[in-house]
Amino acid sequence: PRSCCSCREIMATVRRDNRVTVSQGFICVGFAGVFSKTATSPLDVVKILSQVGTFHSKQGFVHAFRLVCKNEGVRALWKGNLVSCLRLFPYSAIHLSTYKRIVHLHMDELGGIPQWRAIAAGGAAGIVAALVTYPAEVVETRLIAQNCREPSYRGILHTLRTVYRQEGLRALYRGASLTIIGAIPFSIGCYVVYINLDKLWQEPSFRFSPLQNFINGCVTAGVAQTLSFPFETVKRKIQAQSPILPHFGGADVHFCGVVDCFRQVIKSKGILSLWSGLTANLVKVGSTP
């Protein structure tokens, strides 16, 4: 899903640190996230459109941006960015507070915690934060999937009201189970890469330079998100699909439920289509320090 825990945050042993309060950490992470989200919004738009199946660029990654600009204008590269940025604040607050609580429960007398528990804590905190803010993610997907020159939704509140009135409350949580399921391969990917970093660099982790730590974070996030990417792809299709919207919301397959969505995608598009938009996602991983 977006990632359920920050891979770069779990590269070192977690220890108690009271120099930064929860509120201060929340504000710092929130504003840093807004800047990062806005800068990489075009990558998110191309990724989500590819996942939903609104379009498939057969001429490569760069051509996808040209296709969006040609069909909807340059502003379309920032569709859904406002709700994505606003979601960061409650997401960060919930994630940080939940993560700290879980970590503190498992600290030893010296204030340390095993790495696998830190990874599990990050995953659990991410799941809680993602589920609480899930309706905002649905709104983001709907705003990105629609053609902004022929919109069905006009802004965040209009999208929330329209989805609730026309499709019911359950529509705002459709596909939420995939957030939990997708966290499993994501956390496994984080752990497998982490325990092999010493072998990769042939030196202990406490000697890693800032550049090595950055590379470690990129590799870990890239592997983890690649493993969990099919679950996010199906989740985006489920979020976007609606019998009320033109072309059923833009999803390239018709399905009934999570399992049927996997089945129909593989049957009609091939198994590799579950990784549509992965290139944009990996570029984003490498461009957000």
**Major β-sheet annotation:** none
Judged by helices, strands and strand pairing, the structural class is mainly alpha
Put simply, the count of helices is 12
N-to-C terminal Cα separation, in Å? 18 Å
**Low-confidence parts lasting 5 or more residues at pLDDT below 50?**
1-14
Helix % is 55-70%
Overall shape: it is globular
Total E-strand runs? 0
**Whole-number average pLDDT?**
86
Could you give a quick summary of the protein structure above?
The protein contains 12 helices and no strands. It has helices at 22-39, 41-52, 61-72, 81-105, 115-132, 134-145, 156-167, 177-195, 197-201, 210-240, 258-269, 278-287.
